[in-house]
Amino acid sequence: MSVSSTSYRNRVLILGLNFAPESTGIAPYTTGLAEELAKRGMEVRAITGFPHYPQWRFSSPKPPLWRESFESGVRVVRRRHLLPKRPDGLWRALSEISFGLSSVFARFGKPDVVVLVSPALISSAIGLLKVRLLTRRPTAVWVQDLYTLGLRELGEGRVGIAERAIGALERWCLRSADAVIVIHDRFRATVVEELGVAPEKVMVVRNWSHLEEAEPVDRSTARAELGWAETDFIVLHAGNMGVKQGLENVVEAARLATASGSSLRFVLLGDGNQREHLSVLAAEVPSLTMIGSLPDGEFRKALASADALLVNERSGVGGMAVPSKLTSYFSTGLPVIAATDSGSVTESEVLLAAAGPVVPAGDPQALVDAALALAQNPIAARAMGASGSQFRSTRLTARSSFDRFTQLLRGLATGRGPSSTTESGTD
């Protein structure tokens, strides 16, 4: 049967470390894509790990070496891998290597096209090597974070052997793929200009908002359940508590709010490898509360019950990632405060959406001042929230992103290269 036949069901293999039921980071996008492709009539197999993020511990004490299940139309193959308590540096690399080696022993089947999700870069490279040697099918690498930029921005200028090796691996992986999918135009510029990937191979598909428009909630009841007073102005940061978030800045902002006696309350919702460290710093700061990861419904309720939402980045983090939390934030209709470097991708997204104020990274007083300004001007705050919601509904729709993925993957499966279009477009 011809691959181009309308009766043929394209077979897609997705290889990525994170998948549902993980609810933050990359997992909702990998899962959403897999399920949507299945709905569109494709046969989808996903090879992934057991749930572990952002807590960096398995959800069950000792998962089996592997497990296969059928979830929402997707055949999901889970492989166990090394899971360090502190996922940074060498340990994180070893974790990715172990997943990569474990995943290549899983049955790939006979896919028409393979999608590798990076991060995890090293396991994607191992998977690409298997595809090149054995499967020999068209391959797309879906870039959510750029390791090259991350090492530069978090390494404070130090470039050692390990950093150069990771940079060389990322260049090889992206240049060797048949298509590279990036989530922002700034990523495309880096991939083409710095990593030397052919422009015609690179396609921009924005991450979509994986939360529906926020449903009305009983704010009084929800806030009471969370311990938030009606007179508090809640600034909520949701998601991973890692190094690149630089959340010490939020602890210090809360300390300033406590000292001034203001009604500001900062909330850190989620988990991550810096949570314990932050808990120690915040031990005697009553204006800061930490909440562990919540089930999806409770998470949405907490977001909707805040007064402002915060994306906070460590100084020096400018282009390595587009915070996935922004797509969720924009669905709430609440203003967004961005504490980030001037010229960063995060700054450009928040300003483009006109969703809220931007303050310098690592400046807790500026963060406090921005939050107080929103508290004192609720009309302006509501206008910013409405603007973010409008941006989501016109620029971050799932349908436009899925349409472009479908076009790309079917094109690769039938021997056509990726489109050179660089913007995911609007509906």
TrEMBL record:
The keyword Acetylation does not apply. Residues 219-388 form the Glycosyl transferase family domain. Residues 24-208 form the Glycosyltransferase subfamily 4-like N-terminal domain. It holds the Pfam family Glyco_trans_4_4. Keywords: Glycosyltransferase, Transferase. Gene3D superfamilies: Glycogen Phosphorylase B. It comes from the Bacteria. PANTHER family: SULFOQUINOVOSYL TRANSFERASE SQD2. This is D-inositol 3-phosphate glycosyltransferase. It comes from Curtobacterium pusillum. The lineage of its organism: Bacteria, Bacillati, Actinomycetota, Actinomycetes, Micrococcales.
